[in-house]
Amino acid sequence: MPDPIRVLVVDDEDRFRTTLVKLLGAQGLFAEAASGGEQALALLAEKPFDVVLLDVKMPGESGQEVLPRIKAVAPGVEVLILTGHASVDIAAEMIAGGAADYLLKPCPLDELVGCVRAVYDRRKAVGAG
Amino acid sequence: MKAETPRADPASAAGEPASPPAGKNRPLWLHLVGLPGVTAVAVLSAMVLPIPLAVILALFTASLAAWSAAALASRIRTSEQERCSLDAQLVQSQKLAAIGEMSAGIAHEINNPMAIIAQESDWMTHLMSQPQVTPENLAELRDSLAEIVRQVDRCKAITHNLLNFSRKMDPILQQEHLERIMEDMVLLVEKEAKLQGVSIVRDYDPELAAIQTDVPLLRQVVLNLLLNAFQAIPGQGTITVSTRPAGADRVAIAVADTGAGILPENMSKIFNPFFTTKPPGVGTGLGLSMCHGIVDRLGGAITVESEPGRGAKFTVTLPR
Ligand SMILES: Nc1ncnc2c1ncn2[C@@H]1O[C@H](COP(=O)(O)OP(=O)(O)O)[C@@H](O)[C@H]1O
Ligand SMILES: [Mg+2]
Predict the structure, then answer these.
(1) pLDDT for position A92
(2) A74-78, B100-104, B173-177, B253-257: which has the minimum mean pLDDT?
(3) Are residues B149 and B224 in the same domain?
(4) Ligand 1 touching residue B310 (CB < 6 A)
(5) What's the domain range around A69?
(6) Nearest CB partner across the interface for A19, out of B111, B123, B277
(7) Using 50, 70 and 90 to split pLDDT, how confident is the model at B83?
(8) Range of the domain at B29
(9) Percentage of residues of chain B with pLDDT beyond 70
(10) From the CA of B275, which ligand is nearest?
(11) Can you spell out the DSSP letters for B181-227?
(12) Contact criterion met (CB below 8 Å) for A21 and A33
């Protein structure tokens, strides 16, 4: 059996984080959560993750500010933006900054999981090739 | 085929000339010269001509003058309208910018609780698809349901606050003592405040006469300021409410607290819709922007002073 995909959920909404971790677990993924940029960076320095689900509007550092720091700490990790903030400008800016995709909350679970698997497969293909 | 025909300009389609009617293009000075000119002709003709002829000519020139005056007036109106419509366009584009900002804020504030509701539903579906429902599963199901209700309440708080923005603009004025309006709201929060170690000090001016104001609107302002003051105090503290005359024709009410205060960099943002420093679900960022809107409508002003770490004081001045 292949290793499960390791996902890090970064979101300031407590309930959103904890339930998403449970849901991803039920889908056969390994998920952990961080409430903000600092905690996420500490976790990324500690252990490997494949995909980060990153919120944009958070107290303290915003998703835009955290994104380059994530890429610096864990260059191989794929970052998916998952936010309630509907801004084309921010989406474009973050994808230019290295994010793999931009998903708008509320995002159906199968779509989210599909997207996580897709960026994971793409990364593996690139890594192998 | 149909799609290839260019869409016709409705004006040219109706057979109207492309250029505006000639009268509208006459320079303004022609009207100004014309007006005293025709009047002078009428006066002169009355002096030299036989009476019936003079009367006819005078009537004719007078109607000419009247026409000229009317044209001048409409001309001035038009240019005034043009200026007004330019102002209106400016206001409109500012409004659109504000609506854009506002929509992004609303979308964000509603999308987050919706995402939680969707996830809780997914989790409930997952639990119910298990071969058997254990007591633990049942407890989780209950917990998810309760969370959904909480998030619906959160959405409700946002949409209800927005409805206050859209309320009819004309305040309904009635005579009331400021002290009464404040005290009604103080009593509402005082019990909870006491439990949390926050005491409320009254500093009302007993001499202050009743004013003409929209009581329900002003109550909302006071309640929002009290809630903010209460939320700004982390442990024990004091909220001071006061009323004062402010010059001959104005009065002031103030809500001061001994809480965390406001950082200088946030001072310019706190009245913006959706600006909040509170955690999600606690702050909507609509309270102060609503206060600002209401106080504006009542012909007053709202100001704030704060020393970070020492507290904040919001003052509302109103016409008497
Ligand atoms: N009395 C106060 N003391 C300190 N900060 C305040 C006070 N009142 C308002 N603020 C600041 O202004 C922000 C906006 O207030 P408001 O519009 O009422 O929204 P909310 O209370 O939902 O955050 C608050 O999040 C807080 O940062
Ligand atoms: Mg508030």
Answers:
(1) 84
(2) B100-104
(3) no
(4) no
(5) 6-104
(6) B123
(7) low
(8) 19-85
(9) 66
(10) 1
(11) HHHHHHHHHHHHHHHTTEEEEEE--TTPPPEEE-HHHHHHHHHHHHH
(12) yes
Ligand 1 nearest atom to the CA of residue B224, by list position: 18
**Inside any domain, residue A35:** yes
d(CA B10, CA B31): 32
CA distance B158 to chain A (A): 15
Q: Which of B168, B188, B210 is the last residue of a domain?
A: B168
Both B202 and B303 in a single domain? yes
Q: Give the tens place of pLDDT for each residue, B177-219.
A: 999 999 989 988 888 899 899 999 999 999 999 999 998 889 9
What CATH code is carried by the domain that includes residue A55? 3.40.50.2300
Whether residue B158 is found in the same domain as residue B184:
no
| B140 shares a domain with B119 | yes
Query: In sequence order, which residues have a C-beta less than 8 Å from that of residue B18 and are 6 or more positions away?
Result: B11, B12
**Residue A72 domain-assigned (yes or no):** yes
Report the run of H or E that residue B113 belongs to, with start and end: helix B51-128
Q: How many domains does chain B have?
A: 3
Residue pointed to by tokens 């400008």: A89
Torsion sign over Cα B226, B230, B231, B237: positive
Which ipTM score applies to this complex? 0.87
Give the total number of structural domains in chain A. Answer: 1
Report how far Cα B302 is from the mean position of its chain's Cα atoms.
14
Q: Do B119 and A104 touch (CB under 8 A)?
A: no
Cα dihedral sign, B146-B148-B154-B157: negative
- Confidence label for A15 from pLDDT (cuts 50, 70 and 90): very high
CA distances from B276 to A58, B120, B154, B272, B283 (A): 11, 26, 15, 9, 6
Residue B148 included in any domain: yes
Structure tokens at B192: 């909870």
Residues B193 and B306 in one domain: yes
Query: Could you give the CA distance from residue B280 to residue B186 in angstroms, rounded to a whole number?
Result: 26
| pLDDT given at position B108 | 82
The answer to whether the Cβ–Cβ distance between B119 and A19 falls below 8 Å is yes
Q: Is A90 a domain residue?
A: yes
Q: What percent of chain A has pLDDT over 90?
A: 77
Using CA of residue A101, residue A106, residue A107, residue A113, what is the dihedral sign?
positive
Return d(Cα B109, Cα B115) in angstroms, integer.
Answer: 11
Predicted pLDDT at B165: 64
Asked if residue A109 belongs to a domain, the reply is no
